[in-house]
Request: fold
Amino acid sequence: MLLGLKRKLMEFFGDDIEDEDEDELSEEMSENEKKEVTTEQSQQNQQSKVQHKTTTRVESEKQPEEKKGIGSLFGVGKKEEITKMPTSKVNVSIIRPKVFEDSRLIADAIKENKVVTLEYKVYDADTKELLEDTTELGPYFYIQGMGQFLPKIEAALDGKSKGHKLKIEIPMDEAYGDYDEELVEELTKADFADFDDIYEGMEFVVELEDGTEMIAVITEIDGDKVYTDSNHPFSGRNLLFEVEVADVREATDEELDHGHVHFHGFEDDEE
Reply:
């Protein structure tokens, strides 16, 4: 029925109705097409973005293969463009105390003008005979750097502290030398007139013509004859020392002036 009405209207008005309908249809189609085109463009844009991201990711993954080494840290340069700078090795050693105890040990280290107390045993290095033991005779005292003890031992103890132990062998030429027969003398009791008593093993000081002093020992008394020996008891021997540092302290001004260690109650009369 509607179609028949429409046909009659078309016959009455001609083709204008059809044209208008076609125009309206075309407008509706154009709007739909625009929507479809817009939708397609949006999809294409999204696809192109995805493709661009994918391409960029692939390119960025490939890029490190082209640039390596230090230059790659800055994004420029090639491996062959890297220049190695020459370096020099310098070893610097700094000695500093880590704890307070270390500071005390450094301050109390053996050095020149320090009074050193030693406990030691000395052996004949060849026969292993025990020659002297300070546990029986008492500790040995000397002032470092004044030549009062064997130079090789003083040098070995330099910089060491209380409690340090040392085992050292000293050949006779660096110890007390070879035995000298000329230092053996025959005297008489009259030569000891100033002594209250004399006996074998007694040590005494002999003053030489040049003013130097040396220690001698009475080795034998035969009637009026007294035999003495000024050789050191360890002369003619290679020695082995076992040493322990018992104490270290500063020497007093008086000790440095007099050149030897003072003991309480045994100071020089001139003090």
Confidence is low (pLDDT under 50) at residues 48-85, 265-271. Residues 2-81 form one domain. The CA atoms of residues 176 and 232 lie 7 Å apart.
